[in-house]
Design a protein that fits this description.
The protein folds into three domains: 25-146, Alpha-Beta Complex (Adenine-n6-DNA-methyltransferase TaqI, Chain A, domain 2), CATH 3.90.220; 148-205 and 366-425, Helix Hairpins, CATH 1.10.287; 218-364, Alpha-Beta Complex (Adenine-n6-DNA-methyltransferase TaqI, Chain A, domain 2), CATH 3.90.220.20. Helix content is 31%, strand content 24%. It contains eight helices and 24 strands. The chain has helices spanning 110-119, 136-140, 149-194, 266-269, 323-330, 333-341, 354-359, 367-410; strands at 9-14, 17-21, 25-28, 33-37, 52-56, 59-64, 69-70, 73-77, 86-89, 92-95, 99-104, 143-146, 202-204, 212-214, 218-221, 226-228, 243-247, 263-265, 274-277, 281-284, 295-297, 305-308, 312-317, 361-364. The strands form eight sheets. The chain has a four-stranded antiparallel β-sheet. Strands 6-5-10-7 form a four-stranded mixed β-sheet, with no helix packed on it. The chain starts with 8 loop residues before the first strand and ends in a 15-residue tail after the last helix.
């Protein structure tokens, strides 16, 4: 880190922070600010035409015609899985009952205060319940490192400056990842939809979106190529204590890959979950998982058996068809785009029907050519996937570095007083 340590330190008196600069104080939150939950408001009461933003525990919830606060404030999430998270609100706004509003009773830098509270990980103070939550009383008793106001201002400016620089690097990496994903999708789509030999004679597929395909390919619906959602009676004679892999939606990657780190007994998942077997292809059926490309060719199942979320379609290539080729087809742009247009249901509950998969028409090559296409895609994607991995690792490290830098700065582990910071921060 391009920074310097404080030379005169003292014990902080709290477990989570061993020492602070000698001229800083450790101060109870209740001794420097008034904490109070916001006002109750329902989603029915909110109005998109309202003049003022409504903040809940996790940030902006909507708009309303009235406001509860005016100024610059730190908000602490009070309830839910993300309780203890930190947001900022400024101007006129409505704070809901799910947010704790921090109202300092002395001069402080709002941004310094918010970042210090974030580092304190207030979510760890939540009560164990079906709906986790933290109370004002508990937060009030916590002590935070409190530097002089001039130093708060310098710390805030330093964090804003470094955050902007690092976030720009992260955005550049994300832009590279987006381009790599586009390239990946283009490679898959071209190969499975049009083939890998551009010199072969073609024919009109008589499918509007498809156009010309190799002349020797058959035009068929997928119902004649795959079996969808195989019946679990295939394993009904297995012992109930047989170990099988369990696949929640979180374990299914986008455009390939699946984590198989959860194992359960067959009898505990036989009812109420989706059955799959080794080398089956899974495709997410619900929004936004389908549009995001969640799907995989599954291999490595415990005892060759898996059960997973009911929000998966399971596809199995029939005899003389390739599961590898089938997976790449389900990852192609036309399959995802057309499938999205045929989703049914309302809002976040829209799903791709099984009928879309069965009736999807395209050119079908022979088994040998399907395998060659899959081999071709594998080879082309090896470099692309490696570059994706490297850029994702780089983002993770940049984010970790930024968090470490912020924590070290607000806790007095580095001294930023004499660092030259550009104007505007």
């Amino acid at each position: 880190m391009d920074n310097y340590p404080y030379f005169d330190m003292k014990e902080s008196g709290v477990v989570w922070l061993p020492s602070i600069p000698k001229h800083w104080d450790m101060m109870k939150i209740s001794h420097m600010a008034l904490l109070k939950s916001g006002e109750s408001i329902t989603s029915v009461e909110m109005d998109t035409s309202g003049d003022y933003l409504v903040y809940g525990g996790n940030g902006i919830r909507g708009r309303f015609h009235e406001f509860t606060h005016e100024g610059d404030y730190v908000l602490i999430g009070r309830q839910g899985a993300l309780c203890g998270n930190i947001n900022y609100a400024s101007g006129k706004f409505w704070a809901s009952e799910h947010a704790i509003v921090v109202n300092p009773d002395r001069k402080v830098n709002t941004f310094w205060l918010g970042e210090t509270l974030r580092v304190m990980n207030l979510g760890s103070l939540s009560t164990a319940a079906a709906q986790p939550g933290i109370s004002v009383e508990v937060v009030n008793q916590q002590k935070l490192p409190f530097p002089p106001i001039e130093e708060q201002n310098k710390i805030a400016s330093f964090i804003k400056w470094k955050s902007e620089k690092l976030n720009k690097l992260i955005e550049k990496k994300r832009a590279i990842i987006d381009r790599l994903k586009e390239k990946r999708l283009s490679i898959i789509t071209q190969a499975v939809i049009k083939g890998i030999d551009g010199s072969v004679p073609t024919k009109d597929s008589k499918i509007d979106w498809l156009g010309e395909v190799p002349r020797h390919w058959d035009i068929r619906r997928l119902r004649f190529v795959v079996n969808s959602n195989p019946v679990k009676s295939e394993v009904k004679n297995k012992d109930s204590d047989t170990l099988v892999s369990f696949v929640p939606m979180d374990s299914v990657g986008e455009y390939g890959g699946v984590r198989l780190d959860t194992v359960k007994e067959l009898g505990k998942v036989y009812d109420g979950y989706t059955y799959l077997a080794e080398d089956d292809v899974v495709v997410a059926k619900i929004t936004p998982c389908f549009e995001n490309g969640k799907g995989a060719l599954v291999s490595g199942l415990v005892n060759g058996i898996g059960f997973g979320t009911t929000e998966l379609h399971v596809l199995r290539a029939q005899a003389n068809y390739s599961n590898r080729w089938l997976f790449y087809l389900t990852a192609s742009y036309p399959f995802r785009q057309i499938g999205e247009s045929e989703m049914y249901g309302a809002g976040g509950q829209k799903r791709v029907p099984e009928s879309f998969i069965k009736n999807f028409r395209l050119g079908i090559p022979s088994f040998d050519e399907q395998e060659k296409i899959a081999d071709f895609i594998d080879g082309k994607l090896e470099h692309v996937d490696r570059m994706l991995e490297l850029n994702e690792i780089a983002i993770t490290r940049l984010e970790e570095y930024l968090l470490t830098l912020i924590e070290a700065t607000v806790t007095g582990q580095i001294d930023v007083r004499d660092i030259d910071i550009p104007e505007g921060y």
